[in-house]
């Protein structure tokens, strides 16, 4: 599904630059659930953002189902994301002035679907995650675990094949972390490919494979 070859990425730093990714190689099969670990600042988020099509590397190749993402323009990248990627972050950035259903429906806002269709799709994804009862709540009243589930629902509403999660349980207590992990496992069983960035051994333990970013490259130990 994914093939990454010799990916390099640096950021400007004063007059010089920091080389974050120095030649990353990675292959991910459809249906995989993999963890990426590594020290803070090692480049985990940098890699995930590139896989999500949110950023482009300086050099190297990123193939997604044979399609060369590294050649795409910004507008093409936006389409690629919309069609294929569900992105989940540590701090579930929801919009406080909207309720749960409105937040989950946000990605559908520019689609050609009718309001009725959008509502059905939002209801479906909330049902799948077992959180339909939260539908009309204001998001600033949710617990951390509920908010993360809502953010996951929003990431899923367009039926992406690939879910990228950047420390999705990083802000949650242990119990809630377990619930979110179970949810990830369930999504994986339903056929979603999942790449999780994590610090946490519990999280890594449920994945099929664990990779580490070390010295700017990806290794498996
Ligand atoms: N947009 C940016 N501009 C400059 N430096 C950045 C930027 N994003 C990340 N970095 C730097 O790149 C390195 C890797 O960051 P990151 O990928 O966020 O690491 P991780 O997610 O593993 O903690 C860090 O040294 C960070 O400060
Ligand atoms: Mg990070």
Automatic annotation (TrEMBL):
One of its GO terms (molecular function) is transmembrane transporter activity. InterPro entries: AAA+_ATPase (IPR003593), ABC_transporter-like_ATP-bd (IPR003439), ABC_transporter-like_CS (IPR017871), ABC_transpr_LolD-like (IPR015854), MacB-like_ATP-bd (IPR017911), P-loop_NTPase (IPR027417). It holds the Pfam family ABC_tran. It comes from the Bacteria. SMART domains: AAA. Belongs to the ABC transporter superfamily. This is Putative ABC transport system ATP-binding protein. It comes from Salsuginibacillus halophilus.
